[in-house]
Amino acid sequence: MTEKIEKSGSQSERDGVQSYRGKAEYRNSDFGRFCDLSTFPFTRFTHSVTQSNQQGSSETKTTHFGFQTVPEEAKESLVKNVFSSVASSYDVMNDAMSLGVHRLWKDDYVSSLRPGRKGPLRCIDLAGGTGDIALRILDYARENYADRETSVDVVDINAEMLKEGYKRFKKTMYHNTPQVRFIESNAQALPEEQFPSNTYDLYTIAFGIRNCTSIPDVLKEAYRVLKPGGTFACLEFSKVNNPLLNMLYDQWSFSVIPIMGTVLAGDRDSYQYLVESIRKFPSQPEFAQMIADAGFATGGLHEGKGGAWRDLWGGIASVHTGVKV
Amino acid sequence: MAGVRTRLLQLTLPLVRSHGFTRHALAQSVLALPAPHPEPLSDTAVSALFGEGDEARRTLIEAWLDEGRKQMRHAPSRSIKDVLAARLRYNESVVDLLPEAFATLVTPEGIPFVDPRPALSHAAKVADEACNVVNDQSVGPSWYARRTSIAAIYTAAELHQLTSPKTAEDFLSSLLESSTKVESAVLLRVVVSFKHSVPRNMCSEYCVLYMLIHKTRPRPRLDKIEHS
């Protein structure tokens, strides 16, 4: 019995916004046998449809979708569509957009956590669809500490991304072992029967939290599922503090990356959203405060040694950590 | 956020005697919480809260030194001798751990040589705290001279304590008795460094020296001094 993509929650909970339900493609593949995509409620939309021009009533809660303002309940579906669109070329595009630097960031992120140093860990990686963080965690524990007991639950709201991760792991020694599981679920509402409280030693989320509709809900769930003493670690794009570097970064982000999306992936708008969403994410101190407000113990409200976060490459990315005490 | 971290550091201080200035001591701190954890903090959690590698140990050592300065306020009297002696007594329980602790402070990662700044900062902070406790009223160059001399005295006494803990307080007393000479030397150095504001002639400098050595003597009138 190989790993299967587990779905959490009821069908209605996974439906998202009712108005976006439609036919879904059924993929005749090994993946499809384990996860019937014909039951998925969402389909791929053109971006002209998703660009909502609705002026909501005063009661309608809105949030940002990149630089657009959309109804809060619509963001989840919109983000799902983006990642369904980019899933098959996600890793290639990451390499192109960051010139391979994202690999250094992820290596630094995982190595700073030192999984396996003091025994096996039970880890959960949210928005970890393609499995690169999970694979790094397992490899680090194995290569440095001969740890073959550390396990990672890879959780993602997007089945396409999970499919890519599943395929990646089929090429590794962790396939068909209890060290990895793939679970489709919403980071804001992890079902308690599948994700009991006080379960995990390490909660990771890399380049995913900015896509969530409600960051406080994600943090609340992270706090719930972690054991006392468990660690929350988030790698995310952040605010660049150096004005010159910030100018160059903006030029690269808004001039080059959408063009790359067009040429390499045939999807400019998805990559436009990705760079816009980075600009809408809270700054490092704001996000650190949100982590503390969720109940985590953190370092001081500053960067670096003893601080609540650590900047990478001048703040292009940051690693925020917190401990459930 | 920082409150929980600070609380854990406070809970770690009593564990220093048994566990040393180690990451293990920091991990054990959660066992002393009012609602104790079932197991110590993981290595990842210690790194997240206090820093990676020896950085966590430096955080603990700095917290221990901060607590030592607070203990100075509970000295039996408001004399410099008693305040500094109280600080030395704070060291007694962990005196065998202090050489390695100080070595850890002055050898930060990534720097291939000894960094004296933490040691100088420690001495300066102790001196400043001692002067605050005794309500020192020095101003101007005397403010610096007083603190410099106390820092020097305390540093010497603490170093003595590392090798001969039982005679540390007596050594401190003997140093304090000769402290006025140290203070004067420092004050002289400060004043001489401002000599550009004084007429540049040997007699003027002699008058300054004369004033320092014989403080009770009235200040000589510079216009009555014959130039050599």
From TrEMBL, chain A:
Residue numbers spanned by region Disordered: 1-21
Record keywords, A-Z: Membrane, Methyltransferase, Mitochondrion, Mitochondrion inner membrane, S-adenosyl-L-methionine, Transferase, Ubiquinone biosynthesis
Family matches, as PROSITE patterns: SAM_MT_UBIE (PS51608), UBIE_1 (PS01183), UBIE_2 (PS01184)
Name under which the protein is recorded: 2-methoxy-6-polyprenyl-1,4-benzoquinol methylase, mitochondrial
The protein's assembly and partners: Component of a multi-subunit COQ enzyme complex, composed of at least COQ3, COQ4, COQ5, COQ6, COQ7 and COQ9.
Enzyme category, top tier: transferase
Protein origin, superkingdom: Eukaryota
Naturally occurring in which organism (per UniProt): Somion occarium
HAMAP family membership: MenG_UbiE_methyltr (MF_01813)
InterPro entries linked: SAM-dependent_MTases_sf, UbiE/COQ5_MeTrFase, UbiE/COQ5_MeTrFase_CS
Keyword Transmembrane helix: no
Bilayer topology: Peripheral membrane protein
Presence of the UniProt keyword Transferase in the record: yes
Compartment(s): Mitochondrion inner membrane
Catalytic reactions of this protein: a 2-methoxy-6-(all-trans-polyprenyl)benzene-1,4-diol + S-adenosyl-L-methionine = a 5-methoxy-2-methyl-3-(all-trans-polyprenyl)benzene-1,4-diol + S-adenosyl-L-homocysteine + H(+)
From TrEMBL, chain B:
Stretches assigned to the COQ9 C-terminal domain: 119-174
Entries under InterPro entries matching the protein: COQ9_C
Domain of life: Eukaryota
A Pfam family assignment: COQ9
UniProt protein name: COQ9 C-terminal domain-containing protein
